[in-house]
Amino acid sequence: MELEHDDLVDVTDVVCPITFVKAKVAMEELDEGQVLAIRMNDGEPAQNVPRSMKDEGHKVLKLRDNKDGTLTLFVRKVGE
Questions:
Q1: 2 falls within a domain
Q2: Residue 37 and residue 10 in contact, taking contact as beta carbons nearer than 8 Å
Q3: Residue 1 confidence (pLDDT) above 60
Q4: In total, how many domains does the chain have?
Q5: CATH number of 44's domain
Q6: Which domain holds residue 57?
Q7: What are 50-73's pLDDT values in tens digits?
Q8: Would you state the torsion angle of the CA atoms of residues 27, 55, 39, 12, taken in this order, to the nearest 10 degrees?
Q9: ω into residue 45 within 30 of 0, thus cis?
Q10: Which of 6, 20, 36, 40 is the most exposed place for a label (fewest CB within 10 A)?
């Protein structure tokens, strides 16, 4: 089942720490309570981006395996 999301950012073409920077910028565009889907490569981004989003105070909802070497992370924006 697909999680509802308000925006999608694809960071499969960049490496850490740019993956988080792009995700953070996309998150800043959203309103509180909206959900960002972040498509990323498996490996380092899959470890770092969810942790970084939690550290920023946002709620990590789900990490979905896309079965193609990429993952999609769903994060709900928590107010500043």
A1: no
A2: no
A3: no
A4: 1
A5: 3.30.110.40
A6: 7-76
A7: 999 999 999 999 999 999 999 999
A8: 100
A9: no
A10: 6
Determine how many CB atoms are found less than 10 A away from the CB of residue 80.
7
Residues 77, 58 contacting (CB under 8 angstroms) = yes
Domain assignment present for 18:
yes
- Does pTM surpass 0.85? yes
C-alpha 27/C-alpha 8 separation (Å) is 10
43-68: string of b/e by CB count within 10 Å (b at 16+)? eebbebbbebbeebebeebeebeeee
Residue 57 identity (one-letter amino acid)? G
pLDDT of residue 14: 94
Q: Is 45 helix (H, G, I), strand (E, B) or coil?
A: helix
